[in-house]
Amino acid sequence: MAKAIHSMIRVFDLDRSLSFYQQALDLNIAERLDFDDFTLVYLRNDENDFELELTHNHNQTEPYSHGSGYGHLAVCVDSAAASQEKLTKLGYQPAEVKEFHRDNQLLARFFFVTDPDGYKIEFLEKHGRYQ
Length: 131
Prior knowledge:
Layout: E1 6-10, H1 14-25, E2 28-34, E3 38-44, E4 51-57, E5 73-77, H2 80-89, E6 98-102, E7 105-114, E8 120-125
């Protein structure tokens, strides 16, 4: 059986991205690999083994474009409202908390925030299938 171990995104300003992911998601550097032309940084926290790999190409002169195929990353949090408030205080401008209902049952409580490179991150409150 395959085990998901990481997802990679390219970042333009590595220090800015590291700060965002530490503040917004409590992700810390698990490993950093510096090469002549690029740097790979693997981020994780104590919640799981899955990592976010940040790839920084040293010669990149303009921010990356995402095209029409990029979706989003998703994380679970204890409280969508508390997480949204924390990110607002940090100046990251998260969207408002929304709810999905089906047959009068709450399916999800969530919001999105955008990282420094324009990637969307969905914060889902722990509920139902989102644990």
